[in-house]
Design a protein that fits this description.
The chain is mainly beta. Helices cover about 0% and strands about 50% of the residues. A hairpin with a 3-residue loop joins strand 9 and strand 10. It is globular.
């Protein structure tokens, strides 16, 4: 069974940075797209960023220019570097591997 686990969430002040990590126990990791979604209270889960097996990235308009997604296939790990954080970035962040295997989520709270 594939396991996916996020880490790195927490409380951060507006304007600061945070990096999320997601490690998967998936031997096929390097062949598939991986991504990050988020869900704020009362909202639907939304795409934040994705990165293909070949390294092509995709970002939502709300985070473009502030967030960077990356992957390390040798470590079966994906990352989300979040810069210039805003209160509206507050949400539970989920990583997904192969559009199929989801983590449990990690809370990110941006507040002064």
């Amino acid at each position: 069974q594939v396991q996916v686990a996020e880490s790195g969430g927490g409380l951060v002040q507006p304007g600061r940075s945070l990096r999320l990590s997601c490690q998967a126990s998936y031997n096929m990791f390097r062949f598939y797209v991986v991504g990050w979604y988020r869900q704020a209270p009362g909202n639907q889960r939304e795409l934040v960023a994705r990165i293909s097996a070949g390294g092509t990235t995709q970002y939502s308009d709300s985070v473009k220019g502030r967030f960077v997604i990356a992957r390390d296939n040798a470590k079966k790990t994906e990352y989300l570097q979040m810069n210039s954080l805003e209160a509206s970035d507050t949400a539970v962040y989920y990583c997904v591997v192969d559009d199929n295997y989801w983590g449990q989520g990690t809370q990110v709270t941006v507040s002064s």
